[in-house]
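Support case: flavin-adenine dinucleotide complex. Customer-provided input:
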Amino acid sequence: MSLTLLRDPSALEGYARDVSGLRSVPEAVARPESHEETVELMRQAASERRCVTAAGAQTSTTGASVAALDWLLSTRAMARILDIDPARRIARVEPGVLIGDLQRACAPHGLFFAPDPTSEEECTVGGAIACNASGPRTLRYGPTRAHVQSVRAVLADGTDFTAARPGVEKNTVGFHLAHDPVDWFVGSEGTLGIVTEAELRLLPVPVQVLGLGVPFPDAERALAFIVAARETAGVAPRCLEYFDGESFAIARAAMGDAAWAPNAGAMVYLEEAGDREPPLDAWLALGEQFGARDVDVRVFDGEHALREARRLRHALPAAMHERTAPYLPQGGRRMSTDWAVPYRLAAAALAQAATINAEHGLSPVTYGHLGNGHPHQNFVARDPAEVTRVEQAIAETLRAVLAMGGTVAAEHGIGKVKAKWLGLQAGSRQLAVMRALKQAFDPEGRLAPGNIL
Ligand SMILES: Cc1cc2nc3c(=O)[nH]c(=O)nc-3n(C[C@H](O)[C@H](O)[C@H](O)COP(=O)(O)OP(=O)(O)OC[C@H]3O[C@@H](n4cnc5c(N)ncnc54)[C@H](O)[C@@H]3O)c2cc1C
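Agent response - structure generated as follows:
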């Protein structure tokens, strides 16, 4: 018995895009409701020699969840939280569960899932695993990779594949890259198999969390504060989020708080969490060293206030989408960088990027996870000519970033949009190893064609 495939053109159109703006209408869409139905679908695809691209909520910014060829497999009908085990601190979930829903299910157990992409209310666990998603709190807890205990997947030929983190603390069995197959799936962007189930590690909710919005006179001092915040004894941030002057203006407007430090040139949102009361005085003193005034600092204390603070950050991508919308019909699009450098070099990298952007007549809006040396520079390209100009500027910036020991993609993955930049970073042997892994899992190249390689 074969699974029903959607082929109605209007239904297919609903799966033709992700947030990158790339559009490709799949030939058919499958919505399996279980691991077993996924096996069936993949066998059918194998017998008809069809390519299959997995898609969760299609919030990818890189075209990774757009099907370049043949079929799209939506995981949205596999969205059950199968088990939460408070003793082991493990949640067993299907891939279509939204991260926000998982958080709400864990909360009554006093537990949470640490990865917190800004899109957590819209994106799926499967997508987060496949992209190794991260977020503000990654500074303290690490990206999704650190929180995946096991995966169950269906391979291109319909066979089962299960991998769990090895429990041993020592291991000398050959090459390190072959020790833990869970790591192959985290960040594989749908190219190795379809994840149908995962065990996720949970953490106890901290007793005390304090959020602070600290405005600074200019970007330089804000960025210097971020480095000091990572290196000063007595403070222990779990996130250090940077807003340039324009981003801060957007956030201020979203908060309906026009009077909040209107002359500031930048703002840093930080959180400290733990069992003891976070050291507010130490934070204020550190801010003061870099020109922040106590009267400008906003304190976000308690669950409600911290949710408000997240709105600050959420307002930014939404505003950039709004600014881009009028230009979409004429071939414009929003373009955003995802590069990162070692955190101490972030100010130097941003200065180089500013020079390059100015040479191209561009002035992006910059915000992001500077505690990890990871800004997002957002461009509104108004037409195809400007898209080309932005691409040139980004390519030049990426070369500068790589010269500083950085990466071209820190959290959104490579997908299709950034595949052209992979070769700038990965050497020929690294690429060969990736191709060998792909060959071992998907020799016919039928999974997520166009992603990464
Ligand atoms: C407003 C906004 C804010 C964002 N903020 C962040 C952020 O802070 N941090 C961050 O890391 N990302 C962020 N993103 C990017 C995106 O939300 C994340 O990459 C997210 O993890 C993608 O999840 P998804 O369910 O939308 O996956 P999709 O976009 O549907 O898919 C992404 C990739 O995962 C693969 N995939 C999906 N499900 C499976 C599966 N079950 N098995 C195998 N492969 C699968 C797809 O083939 C594709 O390659 C943001 C995006 C938006 C629009």
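Residues 208-319 form a domain with the Alpha-Beta Plaits fold (CATH 3.30.70.2190).

Case will auto-close in a few days if no follow-up is received.
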